[in-house]
Amino acid sequence: MSFVTDPYSGLQLLELSHVWGHGVPSYPGQADVKMFRGVKHAQHGVLAWKVNTVMHTGTHMNAPLHMIQRGADLSAIPEERLFGNGVVLSIPKGSYEVITAQDLEGATPKVRQGDIVVIVTGWHHKYSDSLEYYGESPGLAKDAAEWLVKKECKLVAIDTQQIDHPLATSLGPHRGGPTMRRLAGEYQTATGLDPKKEHGAWNVAHKTLLSAGIPTIEQVGGDVDLLLEKRATFVAMPWKFEHGDACPVRFVAMIDPAGNCRIDSGNE
Hints:
Blueprint: E1 4-5, E2 12-15, E3 34-39, H1 41-44, E4 48-52, E5 60-62, E6 83-90, E7 98-99, H2 101-106, E8 116-120, H3 131-135, E9 139-140, H4 142-150, E10 155-158, H5 183-191, H6 195-198, H7 204-211, E11 216-218, E12 230-237, E13 246-248, E14 250-255
Helix pairs in contact: 4-7
């Protein structure tokens, strides 16, 4: 197993984020991450990067404000939503498939009220700047998002490029799109289904979750396979970004094989 053990607490720490930086995959229609060294060791003896980026790159968190007018921004997300117990659900999906409420209900371990829920479809293995990764990935159906809201989830994370199915976003024939012009036709050819009939509501899963105040993390990766069908404690710390809709985030899981770890009292 690939994990780090804290020598004081005995906690095993597992990385759930993709590496971020120059050249990371970017959504069709959005600019790539641009980085250059403002100062460098050979010239100044110091390294400092300057970065120009869309915030929806790599493993990133979306605040309710991303889709909900007057919703909470990143700085207003309550701290208790960023840390807590939860579950990693293994729900393997193929091209163009959807994750339903029935999938969530049948997954193990069972989701508890107030959990952090991490959904793993297997698409983190396809993480790349490719037509397949962005256009064919699965996504949450409306009933799945509603199921998660009823569970009062603190946070919902997924290993795909978006919470929603690609055909329910501007990648397909919705507002601002299609930014992948051949996507709707390829979907219809591959599935025999009408994309406008099957995915007629724009970003419905995202809007359902965010309107309930549930932040989301997209493009989970790292060592998440080591936690499939397990419970763990999670921490995700976004920027305290006023008016921020999203930002890259470091997402980490903690497990305690001995079951002995307790949080310090804060007293000397």
